Predict the structure.
Amino acid sequence: MCAAAGLPDPERTTAEITFLLEGAQVSHQNGSIDRVGERLMSIVEALLDRA
């Protein structure tokens, strides 16, 4: 999807989003971070804006 979206480095962006998703899942499961979904979306949006 990152390549289809025309992002300049789709492999890197895919890896970064995957890393964020996995971290969000663990944080949600152990309750260490509140508002996980909201925070995740904010970070992903910033990552895409950077690209």
